[in-house]
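Recap from last week: sequence in, structure out.
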Amino acid sequence: MLSGEVLAGTPLALGAAAAFGASSVLQFRASHRTPSQPAGRPALLLHLVRQREWRWSVVLAAGAFGLQVAALSLIPLILVQPLLITGLLWYVLLYSLAERTRPDLRTMLEAVLCLVALSAFLLIARPAVGQGQGLNSFSSALLLGVAVAGAVSLCLVAAVGLGPKWRPLPLALAAGVCYGVTAGLVSSLAFHYNGSPLSVFGQWQTYALVVLGPFGVLLSQNAYQAGPLGAPALATIIVADPLVSLGVGLLWLDERVKTGPWEIAGQILALATLAGAVFLLAQRAPHLDQGTAD
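Predicted structure tokens:
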């Protein structure tokens, strides 16, 4: 039987996914109207902020983040983040609506496969909230920081060595890592909130969010700008984000999923199916650069 928190938190997470999908469409379009910048350079954001389309995308992203935080205050991180995968469905549908085109049958079947795989994972895993105390110790926080820095650095090195066609993917993977850890930090902060907004300013997670959140946004804009693989770049972010969040939730926030042999096998199969369906759907999504390049 579903709890009241799940019934309240799930629509919030789905609303966040819809807003993220709409924001991504606007961001991808705007990024292809700005001068190219090296990965990680804040100058790109200075160019983007001059575009009205990108400013509206920030409003949508801020609203999505607010809904995500509200959802994380009610239900486990490893339940919220997989639901955000539905943002790619909104990406495809909203762009089709804007262009007054209808998604073809294959696109709709792949969208249904995404939802079926996601539902299967959630039903098998049955995520449960933990105590959220795993990031309170210095050693745990340091281990998470080293893991993030190492993963992002490897992605940036890979991006430098790849050609324009594939460069967006490691940049998108780095952005997905940042987003997944950011969600974990937000979930961790929820355990320290005592009713006063000032209570979170005494926690290191708040200051890590100030750095990691904008850096993830910057990397996602670099991924959108780096080449023509707009939708696959978004798919990489959307898949990496919940997978990283799943790891943070299990390793640092004491969240739990079913761990019987059949349950683990079912979860792996559902996640693999979900990842494949997302990438198939991304390949069918419109390549916006073809219609928005100057």
